[in-house]
Amino acid sequence: MEPMPEEQLELYTLMVRSRAFEERAGALVAAGEVPGSWLSGIGQEGTMGTICQLRPDDYLTYTHRGAYSFIGRGSDPGRLLAELLGKRTGYCRGKGGRHIADLEHGILGKSGTIGGHAPLAIGVATAIQIRDGDQVVVSLFGEGTSNRGTTHAAMNAAAVWRLPVVWVCENNGYMGNVPAPMYTAVADIAAMAPGYGMPGEVMDGNDVLAVHRAAAVAIARARAGNGPSLLELKTYRMRPFGETSTDLRDPREAAAWLGQDPIERFRRRLLEAGVLTDAAAQAVDEAARAEMDAAATYALESPLPAAADAFEDLYA
């Protein structure tokens, strides 16, 4: 079922805000303000069609790319940028960088190794099942991560135990600068799903309403106790692997994908349906840019951690 017009406007706004955050983060990297880098999700905002449907008490594990995981869950952009800048006001007090956990919004962070967050999703889903809850866990990953043993083991466990997990593969066709056919033998990652006894579906990841429809079914299935599903979103990242990386992809390929920009496609659709006007779209853009400018100011003006803070948050 299609989301209601007001829900579509909210979804569009979330996508625009996510893009504005990405652009501001990239500008801060270029200005030398970020100690590390930022792995942009510009071009992959169709994933928001899944994230926007989560309840406040649901959980999310995310891949290493994109701001939509945080913006869609309600994280504070100022605290997110402060974390990237290594500031004390960041979500992890400046110790995480782009490895961010926002427990208030059910975002459990990610592992420093690719695929390390898949077992984390299993742990949380198991806890939900033991407590007889009806929350779900959405676990995002890239097509390169589909080759990791942790991913396969976690998918198998989720299927065997009928855990409330929705696996979402954001297939942007590249692991770094390496094209998918060089490291994945199958054209569709979702083809793995039947081997684990769960539904799998491939869709246009740049069509946010198609993503929304498929995710609604998968989330409802998980929430009802019927086990996991695997969704594969065919998409494309418009930025290099990292904001400080050299992009070796064919620029003609990127230019061709530019016409499939998920935000522009959704904007045109909303305009044609009369759900959005040009003036309203401009207002959303301006508000998003102003919000991220204010977030950047907050982050830049925030203090760095004190030396003594290095000894906090230690297990031993």
How is this fold's topology laid out?
Blueprint: H1 5-30, H2 48-51, E1 59-61, H3 68-73, H4 77-84, H5 118-130, E2 137-142, H6 149-160, E3 165-171, E4 174-175, E5 178-179, E6 200-204, H7 208-223, E7 229-234, H8 251-258, H9 262-273, H10 278-301
Parallel strand pairs: 1-2, 2-3, 3-7, 6-7
Antiparallel strand pairs: 4-5
Helix pairs in contact: 1-9, 1-10, 4-10, 5-6
Your description of this structure?
It is a single chain. By secondary structure, the protein is of the alpha/beta class. The chain has one domain: 3-Layer(aba) Sandwich (Rossmann fold). It has 10 helices and 7 strands. It has helices at about 5-30, 50, 70-75, 75-85, 120-130, 150-160, 210-225, 250-260, 260-275, 280-300; strands at about 60, 135-140, 165-170, 175, 180, 200-205, 230-235. Strands 1-2-3-7-6 form a 5-stranded parallel beta sheet, sandwiched between helices. Strands 4-5 form a two-stranded antiparallel ribbon. Helix 6 links the parallel strand 2 and strand 3. Helix 1 (about 5-30) runs antiparallel to helix 9 (about 260-275) and helix 4 (about 75-85) crosses helix 10. The relative contact order is 0.18.
